[in-house]
Design goal:
Layout (H helix, E strand, L loop, with lengths): L2 H15 L7 H22 L5 E7 L5 H10 L16 E6 L4 E6 L2 H12 L5 H16 L3 H6 L2 E5 L3 H12 L9 E8 L7 E5 L8 H11 L4 E7 L6 H13 L4 E7 L1 H9 L5 H29 L3 H8 L5 E2 L2 H8 L7 H17 L7 H8 L1 H13 L1 H40 L2 H46 L10 E14 L12 E16 H26 L2 H16 L12 H9 L15 H4 L5 E2 L2 H62 L3 H16 L5 H6 L2
Parallel strand pairs: 1-6, 1-7, 2-5, 7-8, 8-9
Antiparallel strand pairs: 2-6, 3-4, 3-5, 10-11, 11-12
């Protein structure tokens, strides 16, 4: 099948099924999304001089604009950095002969929705943002109808500096027209932008639906993503949801994970540390460990879902680039260019260093290292250099990725339609109440079978705790020995040399002091070695615990086991209730379950050593004490890991118990909702059967190419 024929098929399919949207809202919304994504990509590859699209994505307040200003504009505040949920919008940066701001306003329909939300009594995020936008417009005193009637507006400028002044009126936090702007495009005469576009997106937790949709539309044409996750809340649930589903499903081919706002994390963590080096080490160990754990888990999920290429993409992203836009500015820009936010953070960091780190003064090299923009620039340049390779991968993956998505959608749609048709055909309205009562009775039995699976997993986890306790103890030996190092000291010595001469009686008995240096060797133990061994023991064993846990119980694996048991149970029938008729509903309940995960965090494992020792330990007694402290610290870490694992297992088992209790309720509620939908369908049974027959025929193709089948309907 060619791209053109698939596009025609998809368009016919979407149009034909659109009349059934109220019956199958979730499935047909996904189909519509697929059709829009595919059309956008098809249009893109039909363009001459294709651009490589590089996106900067993350949550609101992740520092995306600051990051881009530093990466592309050497810190010039081209993009306003004070974006909030009410003012954030998608900004595309492209090449243009003249500096130009292209403004896309909200449609009048969308703005009326904001006004209605603002006037309502709701206090949810969307309502609060709507009130803020409406209030901004009121205070600015602009003619809303006249502005929105423009739809789009091009605002050329004489130079980039003038463009920055114009830009603030449209995207600045207090800009005159900001509240009415949905998206913007910056066209800049920068040679490095030729053949490329860089996009600063709103946060993916953006409460404004139309802006979120703009971001999703952009992601359909995005090749490379710099994904920013704040060090202080690294890879939280919102970040993981985006990494696990939306980005890979949209076809992103290269992903660079950035642990951003490293300066804030140092400020938060540094008060409990004795030095900058200790703070950096502790943060990097903790965040790297979390990145490895979370991304490996997401990759396993994708493998079980049959998408190995996405699993490979996620695994390549396991090592984050630590970055601080502010620290980069501290090292490379004069203080006069620092924003108020930069000035505040600089003052806080330098004060902490003076107070907590014995008067330590940050150096330019410190700021450069914390900013880490050399590594970020290298990643950006590498993506640009791989333009043709990435575009080719996008083009080659366009059709097979879309076909796979379509197959999944049609399969789910067909199952739901088949179930409803069978229910309508084999029952009547009088049997519906009896069917529901029988269903709820039977559900308890099905839930009990699934509870057995959950309980078996729980017992396996408890048995695993005993095994891992032993391995923690035996694994300690390899980390408890320190190798003695050799060093040399330069020692200045002196000796007296006679200066008397035989011909000068007055000099007899005189001398002078001659200075010289010698070297002497010594043995010592490096405190850094002890700290490294403790940290490595903690990292290795925490990872081993999580891997062992995931081999026994992992959310996707548990869900697969539950589904297998459910299908086996659905093979049994009785005269009052055929559970097979509700298979799609019951499976849907399983797929929506929030299954528990194990988390391990023991903080700074080597703190006991760094608090007592530093540098080189030469004295025999001190070396013995360091070795004893190392062994004691390892035992403490072992105990902490063991306790954290046990606590995590206990908490997980409690969650599983709660899951067992809620499973029957969730499944019964799902069946009630399904039967309620069927009850409405009985009002015009024959017509509904005809509708379901048509949907099933479309999803199957009835042995013909799907396009041919559709064109005949």
């Amino acid at each position: 099948m060619t791209i053109e024929s698939f596009s025609n098929q998809l368009q016919i399919l979407t149009q034909t099924l659109s009349k059934y949207h109220s019956r199958f809202p979730a499935e047909l919304a996904e189909l519509s999304s697929l059709q829009q994504d595919f059309a956008a990509k098809q249009l893109r590859f039909a363009e001459a001089g294709q651009r490589l699209s590089i996106g900067i994505i993350g949550q609101v307040k992740a520092g995306k604009s600051s990051f881009l200003n530093a990466l592309l504009f050497n810190g010039r505040a081209v993009l306003p950095e004070a974006a909030t949920p009410k003012t954030a919008n998608l900004t595309r940066i492209t090449h243009g002969g003249t500096p130009t701001l292209v403004v896309h306003y909200y449609t009048p329909t969308v703005w009326r929705q904001f006004v209605a939300l603002a006037a309502g009594e709701g206090n949810h995020t969307e309502a609060r943002v709507a009130r803020e936008l409406v209030d901004m417009v009121r205070r600015a005193g602009v003619d809303v109808d006249a502005v929105l009637a423009k739809g789009k507006e091009d605002l050329p400028a004489a130079n980039v500096a003038e463009l920055i002044d114009v830009l603030n009126d449209y995207v600045g936090n207090d800009g005159r027209y900001t509240a009415l702007v949905e998206a913007t495009e910056l066209q800049l005469p920068l040679p490095e932008l030729q053949g490329f576009e860089v996009v600063d997106t709103p946060g993916m937790n953006d409460p404004v639906a139309s802006r979120t949709q703009k971001t999703r539309e952009f992601m359909a044409r995005c090749d490379v993503v710099f994904f920013l996750s704040r060090c202080g809340q690294f890879l939280d649930r919102s970040d993981r949801d985006l990494l696990a589903s939306q980005l890979p499903n949209k076809g992103v081919k290269r992903l660079i994970l950035v642990a951003c706002q490293f300066d804030n994390a140092i400020l938060d963590d540094g008060f409990d540390r004795s030095s900058l080096a200790e703070t950096e080490t502790n943060l990097k160990i903790r965040i790297n460990r979390r990145a490895d754990t979370e991304l490996e888990g997401l990759a396993k999920d994708r493998e079980l879902q049959g998408v190995p290429e996405v699993a490979a993409l996620l695994r390549k992203t396991k090592t984050p680039l630590f970055a601080s836009s502010y620290a980069y500015g501290f090292s490379d820009w004069p203080a006069a260019r620092w924003s108020k936010g930069m000035q505040h953070v600089h003052g806080e960091l330098t004060s902490m260093a003076a107070e907590k780190w014995n008067g330590y003064i940050f150096t330019a090299e410190d700021w450069r290292r914390l900013g880490n923009f050399q590594a970020l620039t290298a990643a950006y340049k590498a993506a640009r250099s791989a333009k043709q390779e990435l575009l080719t991968a996008q083009h080659n993956g366009l059709l097979p990725e879309a076909e796979r998505r379509l197959q999944d959608i049609l399969q789910r749609l067909g199952e739901v339609a088949e179930n409803r048709r069978r229910q309508l055909r084999d029952n009547d309205i009088s049997k519906l109440a009896a069917q529901q009562a029988a269903a709820e009775r039977r559900i308890n039995g099905i839930a009990a079978v699934l509870a057995e699976i959950i309980n078996r997993n729980r017992e396996q986890v408890r048995a695993l705790h005993g095994k891992m306790h032993v391995e923690l103890q035996t694994g300690m030996a390899g980390f408890s020995q320190l190798n003695t190092r050799s060093g040399t000291d330069t020692v200045e010595r002196s000796r007296e040399v006679s200066t008397s001469t035989w011909y000068n009686p007055f000099s007899w008995g005189s001398s002078r002091t001659v200075y010289y240096t010698t070297t002497q060797s010594y043995r010592y133990l490096a405190v850094a070695d002890a700290i490294e061994q403790v940290n490595q023991y903690a990292v290795d064993n925490a990872a081993a615990l999580l891997r062992a846990f995931q081999d026994v119980i992992y959310p996707t694996k548990l869900r697969a086991d539950l589904r297998k048991a459910l299908l086996a149970e659905l093979d049994t029938r009785d005269e009052n209730f055929n559970p097979e008729e509700f298979r799609a509903t019951l499976e849907g309940c399983l797929n929506c379950l929030e299954l528990p995960e194990l988390k391990l965090d023991i903080g700074d494992p080597a703190r006991a050593i760094s608090a007592q020792f530093c540098g080189e330990v030469r004295d025999d007694n001190a070396m013995a004490q360091l070795c004893a402290t190392l062994l004691q610290t390892l035992q403490t870490v072992s105990g902490q890991l063991d306790a954290a694992f046990k606590k995590g297992v206990d908490h997980l088992c409690m969650q599983l118990d709660a899951l067992c209790e809620s499973l029957a309720k969730e499944m019964a509620a799902g069946i009630r909702a399904e039967l309620e939908q069927l009850g409405k369908a009985f009002a015009d049974k024959e017509q509904e059967l005809a509708h379901y027959d048509e949907v099933i025929a479309i999803t199957r193709g009835d042995g013909e190419p799907l396009t041919t089948s559709l064109s005949q309907n």
